[in-house]
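Q: How would the structure tokens look for this protein?
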Amino acid sequence: MAKYVVAYDLMKQGQNYECIIAKIKQYGTWAHVQESVWFIVTNSTATQVRDNLQSCLDANDKLIVAGLTGEAAWFGHNQEISDWLKQNL
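A: Here is the predicted structure in token form.
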């Protein structure tokens, strides 16, 4: 299974985040690590994830899906996120 960081910027004021959040959560194994940053585990490729999430975006929005190497360091996250990171990276 591949592990990815998904980060996005929805540029217009009042954007509806429900669409992209729902699609990210459909991957099943995920962690919402910061406001617009998620980690997911999936059998999909980065391109497939991007294409799936892109339907929630406007032309001026930004999205990146990048593979995770397994090495990470963090600060300030709650125990649930820390445990998820330890188990999934």
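The first helix runs from residue 18 to 25.

The chain has one domain: 2-88.

Upvote if useful.
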